[in-house]
Every structure is written in structure tokens, then in C-alpha cells.
Amino acid sequence: MQVVQQNFDLYRDNDRDVVWEIQDGAGDPYDPTGVSFFVSVFSKPDRRDANRILRRPLTPGDGPATELVWEVSADRSVMFATQETLFYRLDRMLADGKRKTWVSGVLRLLSAPSPMGDETAFVLQVNDGDEVTVIAVNDTSAARLAAEEARDQARDAQQRAEDARDTALTTDIGAISLRVAALESVTVEGLASDVTVAEFGTSATPTLTWALEGVAPVDTLTVNGVPLATDAETWTEPSPITGDTTYTVAVTDTLGRTDSESVFVDFRHRIFFGASAAAALGPVGITGLSGSQLATGKALSRTIAAAGQYVYVAYPTVFGAFVDYTLFGFAEDPIVTTVNVTTAAGYSGDYYVLRSPNPLTANVPVEVA
């Protein structure tokens, strides 16, 4: 897909809008049904999300033409708070989440008097096929064309002057680059673990991945205080873990500035539920119940099929005694025993075993809290 490069200037003395008029291949108004439009502004030309300073939804206006109007007056103070040259992108977003960039370019804030009125307007002619292609970008204002030509001439003259200054420049560019790099930041982004949930009784050796964003020189990089190579972006736990563990990746640059991200590996107990004709269950009967799940507490809401059988729920005593027990939505007093259970994962511990007072024949809603 072709992305049109279109640069334009904004002026301190004029909060004019930017207008895109969209036509289809036949020159008729473009049908925006099911389509969303966004203009994004970035601080750097690579237009990465990390460098995004503004994302503005644009709603096509009603009328004989399909127009997208960006009211720059609402955003200019935010955009140009720290620099006067930025980079923008106009995106079309379909309902399925697919994004296509139609136009991108450079935004500049100028102090010179604005050469024209209250808007900067372009016409986008778009193919209606599966692949959206920008056919043309044209300025609807003859005054702007003349103004752009004059500005181009002024820019050429300015460039010639800058080239002459560059020729005379004797500053060590390499030293300046190092100083600028030292002023940039470095951050830990996208920290993830290939293991996020595990069962008590098992062990895990998670592998972490992340990205270091920024160009500041790195002084130290650690995982939970353990030093790594300063350019590392992956790490595997050397010793298997058997319980809840938090990992923190921290980076410090040569100016002492730090950034970090954390990820948690959650170990959970298994609870069991089902129906049995037996009036009491031992460890094998409990682990042999038809249902089980990993849980962080005793709370359970299930429908259990019983045919002249008792309904059972068993959970580790570390979750504490139950407060509420209901069958068919009504409070009941279950028969409670404590049994030492060893799960298939290898966890061994006491379980509270809750049995319905009587055998039942039904699809039984049971809730424990």
C-alpha cells in the first residue's frame, strides 16, 4: 500500500484546522461506514507507540463531501510543549481492528505570519478495492499553493545558509552525540514470562523476555538484583521455583536514572468437586471426583450431576473454613471432614471435604464461599 508523504506547517498566529476531504475512485464522497479514523502525533520520525504524544479520533462530517476535520487549536499546546518539529500519521481503522496508514509526514510550528486563512485542506482520492491506495493528495486552496511555493524558495535559501554554516562547523560531532545519548532515557518495556500460573506440587523455571527502549548508555541491568549483561533482553530462572514469585527487571543508566518492570508467577492449589455414592471419601476418592480446577481461594460455583449420589466439594484447609454453603440456592449444613490428600501434581496437605447432607438426583447447583 502506498503511503503519501505530506508535510505541513502550523503557525503561532493562526489556530487553523487541518481538513482531509476523502473521495472514492470515481470522485464521489467516500463511504466511511464501519471505519474509524485517527490522527497520531509522535516526537520522533520512527513513529513508534513509545514516542506517541497524541492520538485524536476524527469523525467524518455530514454533508455533500466526506471530510475529516482536525481541530488543531485543541491540541497544539500539547503537541508543541517541548519541540517545534513533530511527525504525524493519519490512519484508517476497520471494525476488525486492521489499521492502514493513508498519510504521514512532518508537522512544523512556525513563528512567521500565516500566509492564508483558517484551514489547511487536502483531497484524498481512495480506491474502493480491498487494498486501500491513496491516488492523489491535492491542496484545495490556490492561496496555499502560492504560499507553499514562496515557502519552498525561502526554505531553499535557508538550506543554503545552513549548508554554509555546516561547512564552517568545527565542533566534534562525535562528542555531541555522546552527550545527547547520555541525556536520553532507557526503559524496560514489555516484560513477560512464559509461565504465569503453576500448580502447587510442581516446579517451574520461567523464561523472562523484555525490550530496552532508549539510547542512554546502560550502567547496570538486573533481575531481582542479579546482574546481567547490559544488553540482555532475556533470562531463564536457574533454580526451579515451587511457590509464588515476583521477578523485577531493573535498568540503571550512567547518569543513575532507573526504570523497572515486574511480572508475577502465581502458584495455585487444586480443588475437587463431583458426586459419589460413598458416604465418605478418602484421598483416592477425592482426587477421583469428576471435576477439579486451580483456584486462589475456596469460592466455588458449579452445577454437579448426581444420580442418587452425594455432592462433594474438597479444598485445601489453607483457604480457611467456609462461610456459606448452598444447594439449589438454599443454605445447607454440609457434612465436613478433614482428609490429607496428595494431588497428582505432588502437593500433600489437609483438605476440607464438604458433603451434601443427603444423596441427590439432579443437576445440583452448589456454591461455597
Tell me about this structure.
By secondary structure, the protein is mostly beta strands. The protein is 13% helix and 49% strand. The chain is built from four helices and 25 strands. The protein has helices at 76-79, 142-168, 173-183, 283-287; strands spanning 4-5, 8-11, 17-24, 35-42, 52-58, 66-70, 85-94, 99-110, 119-126, 134-139, 186-193, 197-199, 207-214, 218-223, 226-227, 234-236, 245-253, 258-276, 291-295, 300-316, 325-327, 330-331, 335-342, 348-355, 360-368. Strands 12, 14, 15, 17, 18, 19, 20, 21, 22, 23, 24 and 25 form a twelve-stranded mixed sheet that branches. Strands 1, 2, 4, 5, 7 and 8 form a six-stranded mixed sheet that branches. A four-stranded mixed sheet has the order 6-3-9-10.
